[in-house]
Design brief:
heterodimer; A: alpha+beta; five-stranded mixed sheet; B: alpha/beta; 22 helices; 16 strands; binds flavin mononucleotide; binds iron/sulfur cluster; binds FE2/S2 (inorganic) cluster
């Protein structure tokens, strides 16, 4: 999905032209389209929204959702917040670590990226995880990898 | 035709509800059975999900923890006519867990099809809005004030007073912003309502708009809730199509438009002024108050900011009258609270009770104690900025003031239960770590203090110079409490101090804690 042109992005951002209040939504649109926000897109958004690149960069770096590099085919979010701690997420996290995934770093391995997140709103069925947007309750290593292989297969 | 209900709530999906619904449809089709699968919200008995309910003449019969590969067996056993089975719960609405609750805000969640307006209206929906249309704005605001409804997002500010300020502020444009950022760990009531009964939130926002003279509404939903966003967008489209939203709400000539905005992974954007910044497309930096958003809010215009639960209580108040809502609760905590039983708890999920139920009743009688079967060590109430409470607080009635008296905070009503294996030094450290991670960076006590806090706790646990480091931690907590602009830095000391006070042994403390 990395073959995009400035024109195609500008086209896409058309409705937001000249409006400084659309920086966040522009970044979200680009990430929806490409899976990440390439550096060059920051200039394009700045131009389109009629603000400085620094302003766009500031917004881009503030929010943890944004990526500067393409995501893996499967993105797994693992909750590290209190309710999931109380539900014993520590052993899940260490098992994932043993399989080569450090959720605190978010490294990519075999097309899978595992990242930590603070609460997925499934706090009564922890540990909670999400595989490409699909929720997993009472998550175990097996349940997570069953879901990832359904995507990679 | 047999009607079968399988929830489409995210929590149910996380346990395989989609697969179960599919399996039921597939088997029914294969066997030529006339079955309609309704995807409802969840009853809130999350430990029973996927819960399948079959409509019978006697009422809806439930089957708990159903899996897709069980369906052929269940059909053979006659579950489509409510036959007994190991997983059968009997009549769902007769279960103690549900029967003992007072469901007002959550009255329809888990009962109706979330995207059916017919269901919505036949279960009391739109009655509040119709009443509001026939009233003056001042009368609507008075009704909300008299109901005693207080903000459910954390601070507990009286909703009617906030609305009154916006009503009385002249402006060419006003906004209603719904705070659906729900970042607190242990909370999911907003999500369940948006997924399970979105029209209630929409109706509440329209009433707010009519009350204060705002024509534009925005719902700020966190990006971690893709399913809620999807359901909300569908519900808004349906409401537009039926002229409930748009240029003339229900033919009243009054305008109200509504749009969903999505967050981007930032806890502090749940703070109302950071949310406004984010809605304006900027970094979520907290604004100094005053001016309050009711006077100078979104794009500088008067703005009502309310939590999902606050706004969702409004239709019932307008439908049944302030007195009816006000009759529930204790002291200055009126109405019902939707509690979320989370963490290490046997019967986790959503319960709605009038204020005044005790903590012990909630976690033990209702929640059944821990999921692990071990003793409860502590409960964190009110999210990551809330205090840890121990067994000695089990008799405390739930309410804003009564919790404050024991050093706690109701927050958004989430209860996170920990068993005796929890290490409270770790929890205190995490509170500081979380603050460091999510601080907006505007003030030093929060931005730097939280990082220092992690280091000091580490030194205390390592047994280094404990007396001095404990004093340092106390100082730091004081500076954060007093010197932070918002509750992120200001309340982080709450979980830290309470953990230390209740469980000094977990910190390896050999000196006396003051
Ligand atoms: C760090 C921080 C995070 C917050 N997160 C939320 C949130 O996720 N949802 C919410 O409704 N209120 C949140 N609040 C409270 C809001 O600032 C505000 O009080 C609330 O949205 C007002 O609505 P209410 O009066 O209906 O409660 C947060 C406050 C702070 C300081
Ligand atoms: S206390 Fe923290 S989050 Fe709040 S304004 Fe200050 S730096 Fe920002
Ligand atoms: S704390 Fe993990 S899902 Fe809420």
């Amino acid at each position: 999905m990395s073959n995009y042109s400035e024109e195609s992005i500008l086209n896409f951002l058309g409705p937001y032209k000249g409006d400084g209040s659309t920086i966040l939504r522009s970044l979200q649109l680009v990430q929806d389209l490409l899976g990440y926000v390439p550096d060059s897109a920051l200039d394009i958004i700045a131009k389109n929204s009629n603000v400085s690149r620094a302003e766009v960069y500031g917004v881009f770096t503030f929010y943890s959702d944004f990526r500067s590099t393409p995501p893996a085919k499967v993105v797994v979010k693992v909750c590290v917040a209190e309710a999931c701690q109380a539900s014993g997420n520590a052993s899940l996290i260490s098992e994932l670590h043993d399989k080569g995934y450090d959720i605190h770093k978010g490294n990519i391995k075999d097309d899978i990226q595992m990242e930590q997140t603070f609460c997925l709103g499934n706090c009564a069925l922890g540990p909670a995880a999400m595989v490409n947007g699909a929720p997993i309750g009472r998550a175990t290593c097996e349940r997570i990898f069953a879901a990832t292989s359904a995507v990679t297969a | 035709m047999t009607k079968v209900f399988v929830s489409m709530d995210s929590a149910a999906l996380s346990m395989g509800a989609n697969e179960v619904a599919q399996a039921i449809s597939d088997h029914a089709a294969k066997s030529g059975l006339d079955v309609t699968v309704v995807r409802n919200g969840s009853r809130g008995m999350l430990w029973l999900e996927p819960l399948v309910e079959v409509e019978t003449e006697a009422g809806r019969i439930g089957y708990a923890n159903v899996s897709a590969d069980q369906i052929s067996e269940l059909i053979a056993a006659g579950f489509l006519s409510g036959a007994p089975h190991d997983s059968c719960l009997g009549l769902v609405e007769e279960l103690d867990f549900l029967k003992n609750q007072t469901r007002i805000t959550f009255a329809r969640v888990g009962v109706t099809d979330p995207l059916s307006l017919v269901d919505y209206e036949s279960h009391g929906g739109l009655k509040g809005l119709r009443n509001a249309i026939a009233m003056t704005p001042a009368k609507i605001v008075a009704e909300v004030t008299e109901s005693g409804l207080r903000g459910r997002g954390g601070a507990g500010f009286p909703a009617g007073i906030k609305w009154n300020t916006v009503l009385n502020t002249e402006s060419d444009q006003k906004y209603i912003c719904c705070n659906a950022d729900e970042g607190d760990s242990g909370t999911f009531a907003d999500r369940m309502l948006m997924e399970g009964d979105p029209f209630t939130l929409i109706e509440g926002m329209i009433i707010a708009g009519i009350a204060v003279g705002a024509t534009e509404g925005l719902i700020y939903v966190r990006s971690e809730y893709p399913h809620a966003i999807d359901v909300l967008n569908q519900a808004i489209a349906i409401a537009k199509e039926h002229k409930i939203l748009g240029g003339s709400v229900l033919g009243s000539g009054l305008e109200f438009n509504l749009e969903v905005r999505i967050g981007a992974g930032s806890y502090v954007c749940g703070e109302e002024t950071a949310m406004l910044e984010s809605l304006e497309g900027k970094r979520g930096m907290v604004r100094a108050k005053p001016p309050i958003p009711a006077l100078v809010g979104l794009f500088g215009k008067p703005t009502v900011i309310n939590n999902v639960m606050t706004l969702a209580a409004v239709p019932m108040i307008l439908a049944d009258g302030a007195a009816s809502y006000q009759s529930f609760g204790v002291d200055r905590s009126r109405g019902t609270q939707v509690f979320q039983l989370a963490g290490n708890i046997l019967r986790g999920g959503i319960v709605e009770f009038p204020f005044g139920i005790t903590l012990g009743e909630l976690v033990n009688t209702v929640g059944g104690g821990t999921h692990s079967g071990r003793p409860i060590k502590t409960i964190q109430i009110g999210g990551p900025l809330g205090a840890y409470l121990g067994q000695e607080s089990f008799d405390v009635p739930m309410g804003y003031e009564s919790l404050a008296e024991v050093g706690g905070m109701l927050g958004h009503g989430g209860l996170v239960v920990f068993d005796d294996t929890a290490n409270m030094a770790k929890q205190a450290r995490f509170a500081m770590e979380f603050c460091a991670e999510e601080s907006c960076g505007k003030c030093t006590p929060c931005r730097i203090g939280s990082t220092r806090g992690v280091e000091v706790i580490d030194r205390i646990v390592a047994g280094e110079n404990q007396a001095m480091n404990l004093e340092l931690l106390e100082d730091l907590c004081e500076v954060m409490t007093d010197g932070s602009l918002c509750a992120m830095g200001g309340l982080t000391p709450l979980p830290v101090r309470s953990a230390l006070k209740l469980f000094p042994a977990d910190f390896g403390i050999k000196v006396e804690v003051k």
